[in-house]
Amino acid sequence: MNFAIMAGGTGGHIFPGIAVAKALQKKGHSLFWLGAKGGMEERIVKQHGIALTLLPIKPLRGKGIIGMLTMPFRLLKGIYQAKKFFVKHNIDAAISMGGYVAAPGGFATKLCRTKLIVHEQNSVFGMTNRSLAKKAELVMTGFDLNGQYSSRWVGNPVRDSIEKIIKNYERVKPINVLILGGSLGAQTLNTRMPSMLANWVKSGDIKIKHQCGRDKFRMTETAYGEMAQDIDLQEFIQNMAAVYQWADVCVCRAGALTVAEVSTVGIPTIFVPYPHAVDDHQTHNAMSLVNKKAALIWQENESDESFLNKFESILDLGKRNEMQLALAKIKKTHVADAIAFYCEEAVK
To answer: Could you tell me which residue ranges the Glycosyl transferase family 28 C-terminal domain spans (predicted)?
Structure first.
């Protein structure tokens, strides 16, 4: 069969799409990718040898009054171009992994014989997938959303190297703390964590690996001061499987992929949601674990004292074991293969 992945804009949409594409290719199907010109997908997808078609489309919201007035025309043009793409490649099913490029592609499926499948990574449906889910033959989710839009909870795919990690959960001291701000870094983690964790670093109770983000090294190093020589500080971490294997505790943003990865490995985590995320989806992502006693959450507008209390609690071995057991209950494995299977079934 011929499948098209529709995804772009952020790694949170693109990398799950690549995982699903590879799972479908392993089953002998042909894969095509519908992305947006100038998006991250233009660079990343090419590296994986997937046939890539790019539409000249921009985000459909958040562009002011002019953007609102021109949106219908841009959307119609994108729908026409997406329809040509589906017909040219005889696409049996288009899989929306989210991002604005999936909007014209999703609507175009209704103009030809292409079936529509949706996978929503976050715990709140994004604008595009929210619209497409009402028209899709199959809807899958990364989080348990209680069957919203008649969806099936399958989880979010993570890399094989991460899924295969086997950890020792019994370390008492020093405790390995992983701080992740994403590829662009997180200002709060870079500026507030160094002072808040200083006493534990100086006493030798914890060791820190800190991913600070592109061009944020000097700023974060300065924040750590004389402690910097004892911190493994990196702008970007290439081998995430290795650091997840190392980590006993994680402090990080709550993007869907990060939540999926720490959940799969079973790392007790304090999530610090990005406060300006669309629909505040990072808070909802984090709360899906917090409500199951599988994680803790600290918001940027909370006090340092609030974070310190939560961090001190997560250092306790009993608390960590309790959270690891809770994570094990909600862990999803072989997610990309499961998504590929359900996509096949939807087309048959």
So the answer is: 177-330
